[in-house]
Design goal:
Residues 122-268 form the MOSC domain. By secondary structure, this protein is mostly beta strands. The chain contains three helices and 20 strands. The strands form four sheets. Strands 1, 2, 12, 13, 14, 15, 16, 17, 18 and 20 form a ten-stranded mixed beta sheet that branches.
């Protein structure tokens, strides 16, 4: 098995960045999900409610965040701490730095609604669900875990189902699932057997605490923002486990290191 692709998402729910290599921290990949958009009341905003977030293209340039969108030019946002405000992310409240009025105005114009931009200046601030982690584990602004790993053979199997059952909406690209790491050379759904074990990518080891339960974001075309019914309808037929529609597995790094496309992937324990 080999690592086939690496991606980060600097702003939660916005466009991806693809990489040949990446630094792994205990909280996730370098630069991954350090910024987050909220609505005008400070509530977390994602593609679940706002698929137009797919049209915001972030990039990290010289340590700063650069945002681009068609017709809006670009905005440069420094990565620096500022006044902290308590923001609720699912069931936890995390102090985040308010980026500022210029970023809020730019994003509000792109999304045609009042929004705010926040920065996680200290990525060691947010703990992981203690049911699946140790007290020292941390996560950035990802939904719950530092990395998401997907299996290219599982996507091929899903696309085979789509070809038979929903041909008008397939095949789907891996970008629909927004993984950080994609493994090539495994059997379809091999990742189901990795739960509770460790995997090694290059020289970095990761725990596999739980599978990933998929949401409506997977029905959103990551290039256009258009939304359909798949893959959730087909996952509901074939990958429904305790009302969770499963695709991919979450990872928690054991330490810091670097991973690169082409690295060997091995299952340990």
């Amino acid at each position: 098995m080999r690592l086939g692709a690496i991606a980060t998402y600097p702003v939660k729910s916005c466009r991806r960045l693809e990489h040949g290599r990446a630094t792994v921290h205990r909280w996730g990949l370098d630069g991954d999900r350090r910024w987050m958009v909220t609505d005008g009341t400070g509530r977390m905003l994602t593609q679940r409610e706002e698929p137009r977030m797919t049209q915001i293209r972030p990039e990290i340039v010289g340590g700063a965040l650069v945002l681009r969108a068609e017709g809006a030019g670009e905005l440069r946002v420094p990565a620096q701490p500022a006044d902290l405000e308590p923001i609720t992310i699912w069931r936890t409240t995390v102090p985040l730095s308010r980026v500022g009025e210029e970023a809020d105005v730019w994003l509000s114009a792109v999304l045609e609604r009042k929004v705010r931009l926040y920065y996680l200046d200290d990525p060691t601030r947010r703990p992981i669900n203690p049911d699946y982690s140790t007290p020292d584990d941390r996560v950035s602004l990802a939904d719950g875990y530092p990395l998401l790993l997907a299996n290219s053979a599982s996507l091929a199997a899903l696309n085979d189902w789509l070809a038979e059952e929903s041909p008008n909406e397939g095949p789907l690209p891996m970008t629909r699932f927004r993984p950080n790491a994609v493994v090539d050379g495994a059997a379809p759904w091999a990742e189901d057997e990795w739960l509770g074990r460790r995997v090694r990518i290059g020289a970095v080891t990761f725990r596999v605490p739980k599978p990933c339960d998929r949401c409506v974001i997977t029905t959103t075309d990551q290039e256009t923002g258009a939304r359909g019914r798949e893959p959730l309808r087909t996952l509901a037929r074939h990958r429904n486990v305790n009302q969770g529609l499963l695709f991919g597995v979450n990872l928690i790094p054991d330490g810091r290191g670097e991973i690169a496309v082409g690295d060997e992937v091995a299952v340990l324990d």
